[in-house]
Amino acid sequence: MIVEHFAYGAITPALALVLSFLGCLLGTFIAARSRASSGGSRARWLTLSAVGVGGAGSWVPHFMALLGTDVPDSVVRYDVPITALGFGIAVVVYCLGLYIVGFGRPSLWKVLPAGIVTGAGIAAAYSTAPLAMRVAGTVGYDPATAIAALVAAVVGATVSLWCVSTVRGNRALGVAAAIMAVAACSTHYAVMTAVRVDAVPSSGSVSGASPLALLTPVCVAACVLLSVLAYATVGFSVRQNTESEEELLRRARDMYSIATLHRAAAARHEERDRGKAAPVPQ
């Protein structure tokens, strides 16, 4: 039996796409700002970027898209720990990918292996949803579609990492975030298209939490996560502007001090010249 992925129409993919764009935009902006740092400071910024791109930009929209998943003739429930595991996997694999491409100069030979590792990890993160699904039947995969989904995940992750490591400028960052959001949502539906359910009539109830029961805590967590990322982004920009202003003030003070010294030296030279030019009294 093929699983229905648009039970509520276009609202779930549209919501997933918007959330993915916001998460990828903040994560990409933070990754771009990490280039101004080095060593441990850059690693911290890249980790925060992985939370944005992997968590808010990949897993949260993945869950939102799951709200549209339905299986005819059966309720759909989810195992909560396995569902939450996908968030951790998404953040960790994006951390690995960003660490590979985020240190040193970006190059194709760094982005390609990073994209393979991250793409395989994202496919695994999205696969936790079918593993966590509890229905009146058994859940499996179509092998050919699953391989195609894995390829799509690798391509999407490679494009995302290339955008994160090379894009500069606010307008370009916005375009890159939109591309990454489309890639993330496409990967989700590619993975979920491979899911097959063999229905088994059963009079017993299906254990687990319903998607709507998980909606409130996930929405609260998503709002908190996006707020923290936005605060970090704005705080970094404010701190960077403050440092720039302080640097300008320091240079202005140095220039004023140099100009004052020059004027004082010129005044002394002028007084000395006047003394030499004054006539000697007879």
Tell me about this structure:
The protein is mainly alpha-helical and 282 residues long. Helix content is 76%, strand content 5%. It contains seven helices and four strands, in the order ααβααββααβα. It has helices at residues 11-33, 39-66, 80-102, 108-132, 143-166, 170-193, 211-277, and strands spanning 77-78, 133-134, 137-141, 195-199. It has a two-stranded antiparallel ribbon with strand order 1-2. A two-stranded antiparallel sheet has the order 3-4. Helix 1 (11-33) packs across helix 6 (170-193), helix 2 runs antiparallel to helix 3 and helix 4 (108-132) crosses helix 6. 40% of the residues are buried.
Secondary structure layout:
Layout (H helix, E strand, L loop, with lengths): L10 H23 L5 H28 L10 E2 L1 H23 L5 H25 E2 L2 E5 L1 H24 L3 H24 L1 E5 L11 H67 L5
Antiparallel strand pairs: 1-2, 3-4
